[in-house]
Structure formats: C-alpha cells, structure tokens
Specification:
The structure is a single chain. The protein is of the alpha/beta class. It has a single domain, classed as 3-Layer(aba) Sandwich (Rossmann fold), CATH 3.40.50. It is 44% helix and 14% strand. The chain has eight helices and seven strands. Strand 1, helix 2 and strand 2 form a beta-alpha-beta unit. Helix 2 crosses helix 8. The chain starts with 8 loop residues before the first helix and ends in a 12-residue tail after the last strand.
Amino acid sequence: MADSQFTTHAELFDLRGKCALVTGGTKGIGVMIARGLLQAGARVVISSRDAEACAETQRLLSEFGDVRAIPADLSRHDECRRLADLVKAESERLDILVNNAGAMRREPLETFSDEAWDAVLDLNLKSPFWLVQALLPALRRAGSVDDPARIINIGSIAAIHVAQSPNYSYAGSKAALHQLTRVLARELGPQHITVNAIAPGVFPSRMMASTLDAVGDTIAAATPLRRLGRDDDMAGIAVFLAGRAGSYLTGTIIPVDGGIATTATGTP
C-alpha cells in the first residue's frame, strides 16, 4: 500500500476549515460536542430556543474557537427553516450537522397525554428530519468522495434497551431516530454525506438532573465501567465521526454508555 494513502494521527481528527451546526448546543451533551468540535478547529454555530442561554454559552465557548449562537425553537418547522437559512447565509457549505436538541416527558401510562407525545416527537424526531431537508444543499456542497459531509444524530440507549423510567414518547422517538439514521445513510451515502447516530448513556445534564440526584450513584455502580459519562467521552466520539477517522462509517448507531445497554450485567 502506498504511503500516500496514510493520514497522520493529527490529520485524522483535524477539523480546521470545517463548519458545524450543533442544535441544543447551550447545555449538556450539546455543549460537550460543540466544545470538542471547536477545539478540533471547526467553526461552530450553536442553537437553542433560549436567547439568554445562547448568548451566555457563546461567550463561554468563544475561548475555544469561532462560535456563533442563533436562538430558534426547533420544535417548529418554520423555525428549522429559518435557522437553516441563517446558517446558509453565512456559508454555502455545511460540513457537519449535529442534531442534538431534544426533550423528555415523564408521565404514567394511564395519563400519558397527546401533548407529551407531540412535544417530544416534534423536537426529537421531526426536527432532525426538517433540518436535513433544509440544509441538504449546503451538505451536498461540502461533501466529496474522500471527505463526505457528516450528519450526527443524537439518539439514546433508551432506544436500545428498556429503561426503568416510563419515558414512552422519548424512547419511541429515539428508536425512530435510530432507524431514520439508517434510512438517510443509505440514501445520502451516494451524495457524499454520512449519517450516523450517537446513543448516549447517562451524562450530566439538565434533562438528567433529577435522576442523577436520586439514583446517580446506583447507575454508576451498575455500569460495567463504574462511572457516568464525562465531557471528553462525548466530545471524543463526535470529533471521531466528524473527522477523517470516521469518514468510512455511515448508518451506525454507537452507544456511548460505559456498557449499560450492551452488556447484561450493565443493565440496572
């Protein structure tokens, strides 16, 4: 094999010159991913419905690179289109789309409401699809045979194993997102766009705060690696998928969970 086919270690994870959009980028996993992409050299746009959180997170992340925040309520189709238009106005190319914005609703089976289904499905499942539709021209322009554009959907291990909490719409929406990832991967691969999903386990976030306060130590003790997820765990997998190192993967669902969903002994 010719030496010219080998890439240096640094080049495998180098995102300089790349443009990324991270939805839900003002808290939890979104911030972890945005920071990782910035530190790898990408220019990053983050989005959240909370304008104050956008401004504050942009300020905090600016020490790591070129970041811009755009407030948008991505549970609405028109807002997805508006965000996409603003991103495309800055650049005709989008190298990396991270669909991370999400919601969770906990209600008993007997009283689980229509609103609890609609609110979660709109944000967790429809929004990623709407953004792919709106940003497809920019993703196509960015991709090539050797360096495809990347779509990274944030799923959940709740779509791989059955959690104890009755999160009906959340688990259902994430399972659907995993399958949508595979469907889009098959269609968009020939267009030089990869589509993969990260299925996080338990990471510190506002969504998980009450659970971690109540049973965080128990979850960590039941995890094969005996700890919860850390910022670098999430940043690392995102940079891997976005960089040269992950350019030949598409249609994959990658659990990042310390083994909870993929080993029998790790299931609480």
